[in-house]
Amino acid sequence: MRITDSRYDRDRQRLAVAHRLITHEARTQTIRQATGLSGDRIRRLYRDYVKGQAARAIRRRRGKSPRQMSFFRRSPAHELQAATLCALLRQCGFLNRPQVLFRPTLDEIGRFCDVYETFCMLCPGTPISFEHAWHLLQVIARLDEFVLARCPDCQALWIRDTLDLLPDNCVTCRAGAPPD
Fold this sequence. Notes:
This protein is mostly helical and about 180 residues long. The chain folds into 2 domains: about 1-65, no CATH class; about 70-175, no CATH class. It is about 50% helix and about 5% strand. It has helices spanning about 10-25, 30-35, 40-50, 75-90, 105-120, 130-140, 170-175; strands spanning about 145-150, 155-160. The protein has a two-stranded antiparallel ribbon. A hairpin with a 6-residue loop joins β1 (about 145-150) and β2. The longest helix has 17 residues, at about 105-120.
């Protein structure tokens, strides 16, 4: 048996993606859904390869994954960072493919990690966690209540709530607009 046989490639890729998700502090349930690994295998991977060996402390988050879009509306900074992340997702082709919602491949998850890492470089110290970013992708790709739209005033990309009557422009234009 050789480790280089192609039949082991998928397992190695699965472990590599799981390791990458652990370093992004994704929850065990998210990693299970993404990779198909068992919860016990994920915990062992963390214990054996990540815990105590990382340059920075990696927390294991507990509880349910974030599922509130109000997080992205907490402040103008949150809104701008969410729009930046969505622009990156759009540029990398994630928002044009609805199959990402149902069963993403390991390659797509790896590419999403690339997008999130790029976003973290563009917005250092961002409050948007990996799982917030994953949730944002799921919501925006559905084209239901929230959509990535162009501001009618400045043509910048922003996340628009389709059920909200006001405001109808981006956070930058709202901040610069004189009060009525």
